[in-house]
Design a protein that fits this description.
Number of helices: 2
Shape: rod-shaped
Low-confidence stretches: none
Largest sheet: none
Radius of gyration: 16 Å
Structural class: mainly alpha
Number of strands: 0
């Protein structure tokens, strides 16, 4: 059902965007606390997986929304 596809896509898209905002806020917080060099790199490495999953969810959600619109 096209309506269901759009709704599910919207949920995925929002979850992905929330994850991206989480990564941005955590990165700014790490810089604001004065971390430098390897300490900052370690903090940012922890965010890589969250960032990739968030981008994936956003892309899947957007694809579902477009699919629902086209059907």
């Amino acid at each position: 059902d096209a309506q269901e596809s759009r709704g599910l896509g919207d949920v995925y898209k929002r979850q992905g965007l929330l994850g991206l905002f989480y990564c941005i806020l955590k990165a700014f917080k790490a810089r604001r606390t004065g971390l430098k060099g390897q300490e900052l790199a370690n903090q940012l490495k922890e965010l890589v997986l969250v960032n990739l999953v968030s981008l994936f969810l956003s892309a899947i959600g957007l694809g579902l929304v477009i699919f629902g619109i086209l059907i």
